[in-house]
Design brief:
Blueprint lengths: L6 H9 L5 H8 L6 E5 L6 E3 L39 E4 L2 H10 L3 H11 L20
Antiparallel strand pairs: 1-2, 1-3
């Protein structure tokens, strides 16, 4: 199916899509308290982003004593004097998130309404509520 939008319109749509967690939560009106860690893109070792000593330029993870270090680059090449992490891992405390979710004024209405919105009649399972087990539970 061919697109009916001009290249300029397509570019505008693509540029409106959030590219990071801050933009996404801002658009959704969500205030999240997340902890950011630097994460090695090869072995996934994490380093505290706010560590007073900073984090190394290259990953120092060793799978076992005497092994060679991972040595994957953790910082992007400096642009304007600021080297940014190549990859980040964002973490939010689950209890805090559940507390925030249940504190929403409309949460009870949304939870009561949700299963009835799922049809499951098309024969295509798109959601856990499209099955019969939870509906008959």
């Amino acid at each position: 199916m061919a697109s009916t939008k001009s290249p300029e319109e397509q570019d505008a749509i693509l540029s409106s899509i959030p590219t990071n967690i801050c933009q996404t939560t801002g658009l959704l009106g969500v205030e999240l308290s997340v902890k950011a860690f630097v994460c090695c893109p090869k072995c996934y070792k994490t380093y505290h982003l706010e560590d007073a000593n900073g984090y190394p330029e290259f990953c120092d993870f060793r799978a076992f004593p005497g092994d060679t270090p991972c040595h994957q680059r953790l910082r992007s090449p400096s642009q304007g004097g600021i080297a940014l992490p190549v990859h980040q891992f964002l973490y939010q405390d689950l209890q805090q998130w559940i507390g925030w979710m249940y504190a929403r004024p409309d949460i009870e209405r949304l939870l009561d309404r949700y299963p009835s919105q799922c049809s499951g009649d098309s024969g295509v399972m798109e959601d856990i509520w499209d099955g019969t087990i939870l509906r008959e539970f």
